[in-house]
Amino acid sequence: MHYIAKRSGGLALLATIALSAPGSLSAQQQPDPANPNIVVNAPQLIAGPEVKGIITARNGDKMKVTAADGTSTIIAINDATRIKSGARLFGGGGGKLGLESLLNGLPVTIKTLQSDAGLIASQISFKTGDLKTATMIRNGTAQGFAEQTAATEALRGRMADIDQYNIKGTTNVYFDTGRAVLSANAKAELCATATQAEATSNALMLVVGYTDSVGSDEYNQLLSEKRAASVINYLQQACHWKPYRMLTPTGMAEADPQASNDTAEGKAQNRRVSVNILVSKGLDGL
Q: H or E stretch including 122?
């Protein structure tokens, strides 16, 4: 950091603390608020690492982000930090959001800058569906659900490998070609699954959408996500399954087919959403 005193007839260098690094951003001169006669060169910043994880704590202008391997990183945020959401499972468009959207339990991807004081977030991005889930967690906490603590902690581990969970049951519901509308039979099966899960201690649900091989990869990806969203909405609204007991849903397009896509019967089996009842191995049996 460079301190330069302003004097009539010229400038005298008072002190220099040099900061330099390859690829660093150029320092900018700013007036020292404590002494308007001194110009302070802002510290140089260099590109930092990209950080992926879940927000596990917020305190003022700092937040803790915990990665899938359990390591935590403290990252500063400020008015220059750009915050974006993407249009994913639950619809809606992306856009710039405020710092209030950075909720505990939200999975994020952060572009950072490195300063003397540590990492500073230049951009924070996340999926729209994940923000809605994190908001539901916060609202559920405010309402004081008795089961909130264990369910929320398990939800924050949703980035972990599926091997961290025991599968207690799987229900498949099926769809017509190109459609994401639930049939009457599918609706009945979903509520029966929710009842089964409610009777299972510490149970969470993982919803995964699929398609047959008809259509482009991009189309099938969106369709599988829409099918998963339809199932989630019905489970929460009609079957009264708590949002914070739902792991992050996903669409898998035509991956992992149940049957051959070479026949009409096989395609019908692949146009599905799988609803899995899971219990964390650490909580199973408690």
A: strand 118-127
Tell me how far apart the alpha carbons of residues 189 and 173 are, in angstroms, rounded to a whole number: 7
Antiparallel, parallel or unpaired: β 118-127 and 107-115: antiparallel
Amino acid (1-letter code) at residue 52: K
Question: If one looks up domain 47-129 in CATH, what number appears?
Answer: 2.40.50.140
Spans of all domains in the chain = 2-44, 47-129, 148-280
* CATH class of the domain at 148-280: alpha beta
C-alpha–C-alpha distance, residues 99 and 159, integer Å: 23
Which tokens is 95 given? 């856009």
Between 184-198 and 217-237, two packed helices, what is the crossing angle to 10 degrees? 60
For residue 269, name the pLDDT band (cuts at 50, 70, 90).
very high
- The beta-carbon contacts of 156-163 under 8 Å, at least 24 apart in sequence, are 156/54, 156/56, 156/66, 156/105, 157/280, 158/107, 158/247, 158/248, 159/53, 159/54, 159/67, 159/68, 159/107, 160/68, 162/206
Q: Which of 46-50, 94-98, 192-196, 270-274 has the lowest mean pLDDT?
A: 94-98
Tell me the per-residue pLDDT of 16-63, one tens digit each, with 9 for 90 and over: 333 333 333 444 455 555 555 554 555 578 989 999 988 877 777 888
Name the token pair of 106: 């939200």
Say which range, 23-37, 168-182, 210-224, has the weakest mean pLDDT: 23-37
Report yes or no on whether pTM surpasses 0.90: no
Q: Do 211 and 254 form a contact (C-beta atoms < 8 A)?
A: yes
